[in-house]
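JOB MANIFEST
job_type = single_chain_structure
chain_count = 1
residues = 190
[input]
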Amino acid sequence: MEGSAPSSVRAWLRCYRCWSTELEVQVHYEGIHRIDPQSGERAEVVDEMQEAVVQCLDCMHDQPHLGFQNGRIEPIEDRWERMIAGTPWVASCTVTVEADAVESCSGPDAADSLAYAAFGDHGTREFFTHVRFHKHDEDRIVIHLLVELYARSIEEAGEVLEEAARGSLAITSLAEESRPPAAAGGDHQH
């Protein structure tokens, strides 16, 4: 079929949650450019920054296994296979971090701040985290969480949690869940 992506591309070019291929990229660009005084055109790039988030239009989840590079969507090598071929795992765990690593532990931003302190970007972009509670222990904070992540085995799930943890990690339980129903039939159809 003309214009369709090769099957090797389709393996990663879909939502890791519902397997939909209805994706969009939201690109935010900020730049500082010098202007040529003769032509009024852009002469020199002083500074520029681009952020992009790929999102599924069907389930509205961000797609942390995909990035936007050189004008196209590309897989992020260290996670796309794990998130597409893997299954969801749910961990009950604690992460103990230094108190100054937590920006806020009360109010509307507390859950995101605690999840970020525990797992960094993984805690706010790749994992589904639910902060159950936290407690202060002198100059440390113990964060109790439920975490959903994607992995191909229990060993890989444990490794991913250990690598992402920004403090001392204790996993009290780790169980495999089933994929959401839309994943059962292969590519998601509309």
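[summary]
Residues 86-176 form a domain with the Alpha-Beta Plaits fold (CATH 3.30.70).
The radius of gyration is 20 Å.
exit_status = 0
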